[in-house]
């Protein structure tokens, strides 16, 4: 392993959302704590960082019902990691706000995963080597091929030339390809420095995180696509939760 892999040893998981679309399940339980296959979604993403990316220094960004997350995972010892909790006081800034909160404590490249996303049989371990190969990157976004056009509409779409992302559209109304942008990112120092310049803008003037990344991609910055494999569910609703549990049960039944 070279220095690039060794120096990216911190992970951030966002777990601050209100989870309104998943009511009534999320009235008393944070959405990332909903269970998939008998364990919280958040635990699956902690284990993903630990086992596939060898990241054991993890920051969890919390807000809504965050105390329940802290009580469940504690300092992370039971999961074999070190967990630091960060309070998201920038909820109006969306995902960008969570990244700003993390940036205040991490001034080096880090991997970021959305806390409500479920990855089954993924190839995240290959992301380590992709980071090595692309040591000039500003941002790496995980991208998955899918025939589910509605899923792309709920997330973001990408246009790729080679391994570079040249365009990003968040929640697109028109689908131009089968590439789904997922919530696994790697943010490098140059990108974090760029975000710092936007920090003092009002929430109304501040663009969404993926719009920022998309602007940089359009301007020729080093925004790369990591080709993700496996099954993926972004748990926004009760229907999504049921789908993720069905996928896990189906995998177990077919073994």
What is the tally of helical segments? 9
The chain-level structural class is: alpha/beta
Helicity range: 25-40%
The value of Rg in angstroms is 17 Å
Mean pLDDT: 90
Strand content: 25-35%
How far from one another are the termini? Answer: 33 Å
N-to-C SSE series?
Answer: HEEEHEHEHEEHEHEEEHHEEH
Give the key terms.
disordered N terminus; 9 helices; nine-stranded mixed β-sheet; 13 strands; single chain; two-stranded antiparallel ribbon; 255 residues
What features would you describe in this structure?
With 255 residues, the chain is of the alpha/beta class. It has 9 helices and 13 strands. The protein has helices spanning 3-7, 41-52, 66-73, 94-103, 125-133, 149-154, 189-198, 209-218, 238-253; strands at 10-15, 35-36, 39-40, 57-62, 82-87, 110-114, 117-120, 139-145, 156-161, 164-170, 179-187, 223-228, 231-234. Strands 1, 4, 5, 6, 8, 9, 10, 11 and 12 form a 9-stranded mixed beta sheet that branches. A hairpin with a 2-residue loop joins strand 2 (35-36) and strand 3.
